Amino acid sequence: MVHPIVKFPDPILQRPAEPVTEFGAELKALVDDMFESMYDAHGIGLAAPQIGVPKYVTVLDLSFQKNSEEKLVLVNPEIIFREGKQVGEEGCLSLPDIREKVSRAARVKVRAQDVNGDWQEHDAEEMLARAIQHEVDHLNGVLFIFRISALKRDLALRRIRKLQRAGEW
Ligand code: NI
Is residue 100 flagged as an active site residue? Predict the structure, then answer.
């Protein structure tokens, strides 16, 4: 089922999600809904709070449905290794039309459970490393506009308020 995407400044996006402790049909349904909602919104990554569910789950598909092997489900993810630096533009389904350059680690190793509760480690670099860091930030209640300079953030917040006033947010 496709869910509407929760937008900034909804408070659910700015507080840490809760760890997943039960691995059953409910979690599988949530993951299915997250992929559906992400594709519907033309995104390549989505965290559960973005559809209003404060759980520590994120899904990614950098191929956007072109390669099922690139579908990634991270339950209770933790970045256990970071190396190097990359700077690149990011956007977010919860902050439509806002794009800014964000500094991230170039390579990461993430430890996470799959939908069955099995722990796995994933090595990622470049775009995937960036996307994982963006999504794990979401689960910790951090949006990418809080990873840019105060000056750029103020400009972005001003733009959002203007869009809100115009009824376009
Ligand atoms: Ni995002």
Answer: no
End-to-end CA distance of the chain: 23
At 72-112, the pLDDT tens digits run 999 999 999 999 999 999 999 999 989 999 999 999 999 99
- Whole-number Å distance, alpha carbon 147 to ligand 1 midpoint, is 12
Which CATH number, 3.40.50.300, 2.40.160.40, 3.90.45.10, 1.20.1050.10, labels domain 11-165? 3.90.45.10
Cα of 144 from ligand 1 centre, angstroms? 7
CA torsion through residues 133, 139, 141, 144, sign: positive
Tokens of 77: 């993810």
